[in-house]
Amino acid sequence: MNSVVGGVAVFAGIMALFVTRNEPPTPVSASKEDILPPPPFLQGVKRCLKSRRFVILACSLGGGVGLFNALYNNLQPALCLKGYSETFSGGMGSLLIVSGLVGAAVSGIIVDKTGKFEQVMKISFAIAGLAGCSLSIAINYENQPWWVVASICGFGCFGFAIYPIGLELGVECTYPVAEATSTGLIIMIGQILGVIFVVTTNLANGDLNTLRLIICLGRLLGTR
Which of 31, 43, 93, 130 is 20 to 30 Å from 212 at the Cα level? Predict the structure, then answer.
């Protein structure tokens, strides 16, 4: 898996050497057609948080990122508990990422050709949700490898498909806020929700180390 990731990174680096222009010949999105100066950072953050559309998008997309982190963190233990081999369980984590890369690439091509960002994102959200529900049921049964594989492929492919589209929609609905500001907020919300989901699942599984860590952090914050 490391060699595959390294190969993709090297290929992307080599291809980037042939890029000699700062901007494409045509605007990449609607927000690039009219160039307006971005507001200062704090004003940009306030504008993002005051936008109801951005808040809904950030929570939904961030929740998807958090769910992926929680799933990736708990997938192998859950499968091993049902009798699946470590090789199969580890391979499912790799399959989740690889299928996601394929889905993100395909969705990017589709929205680039059609411009239907919202439609593609809504459909991908729905299918990813169904695949996630299917996976949550499949891991409760033993000797169902193809069910698990199909669910993981569906969740990875369509779950990752919404990520680049969601980031672009976040930029569009907060224009002229800097892209780094809106994108950074979405990623930050996703990581926070990911921590919450992982901690919650660990507590639900009776992980005493996580409980002790939370108690220690609570006492540390309480003394300040």
Answer: 93
Q: Is residue 96 within 8 Å of residue 79, measured between CB atoms?
A: no
Q: Could you tell me if 189 and 62 are in contact, meaning their C-beta atoms sit under 8 angstroms apart?
A: yes
112 within a domain of the structure (yes/no)? yes
Tokens of 40: 């200062």
- Whether 27 is in a domain gets the answer no
Running DSSP on this structure, what letter comes out for residue 38?
Answer: P
Among 5-9, 53-57, 123-127, 142-146, the range scoring the smallest mean pLDDT is: 5-9
| pTM of the entire predicted model | 0.70
SS3 assignment, position 201? helix
pLDDT 10s digits, 160-209: 888 888 888 888 888 888 888 888 888 888 888 888 887 777 777 666 56
Q: Is residue 102 part of a domain?
A: yes
Domain interval for residue 100: 50-222
Q: Taking the CA atoms of the chain, what radius of gyration do you get in angstroms?
A: 20
Number of domains in the chain: 1
